[in-house]
Amino acid sequence: MTFETLLVDVATDGVAVVTVNRPDKLNALDRRTLDELDTCFSALAEDTRVRGVILTGAGEKSFVAGADISQFTRLDARTATAFARHGQSVFDRIERLGKPVIAAVNGFALGGGCELALACHLRVASENARFGQPEVGLGLLPGYGGTQRLPRIVGRGIALELILTGSHIPASRAYEIGLVNRVVAADRLMDETRSLLQSILKQAPIAVELSIDAVMNADLPLEQGLAVEALAFGQAFATEDLREGVTAFLERRKPVFRGC
Ligand code: COA
Is the pTM of this model over 0.85? Predict the structure, then answer.
């Protein structure tokens, strides 16, 4: 896969690293970058070699510093809604990849960059990462899912504080509020993220996918969410990996999962 604004590397262990690569613009998301993310994640979904994805930004300063602000001068009320819808659909594609996606946040994750990290299933931050939804300072609001995913992850009170003040928070505060799963030294970011992903990739792949789907439904009314969980539980019992996992436990050996 070759892109102008993304670097994609698929290693032999099935881990794909996608790097947003516009470091001179702090990896801000312009239309081309969003479109390339869309194409890239469609291809990663289809690629059977790929078992999980790490998403990061090029350079040491920024993960993604938001949507490209220079585009906003061209938008009006109608086109801005379509603009938000487009970004939302790309981020949905990431969230629904069917394989675990971890954001390795290596600096600024602001606006659309914070929202991009929120669309990933897990987030690992380097000590120098900074998070925020500064849109109100520009006269707008988060439009790539921030008003919906942020409160689901950190709760409404803290989400509103971040969105209404537009303030940036350091990685340590992001960890305190549950916005990120881990904070690590900058030079350990990729290794620690890879090791977290590997600990997921050791598990039964269909069970992992079903778990992600079920948890993504955790905002449904409880009764409906429990119905989704029971259905997924049933689907797991239709897999060979379930039989392998249980048999291996009973035989006191390590399971060998085949993803079927
Ligand atoms: N959109 C477009 N360009 C952006 C950008 C964005 N969201 N964020 C940074 N850039 C560009 C800058 O315009 C600058 O480009 P230039 O060198 O061609 O002038 C380059 O990236 C470097 O940014 P700069 O502002 O000089 O770096 P800094 O270290 O002084 O500040 C930030 C870093 C992240 C604090 C600052 O760039 C910023 O506030 N960016 C916007 C963040 C934001 O509001 N995001 C939400 C958008 S909805």
Answer: yes
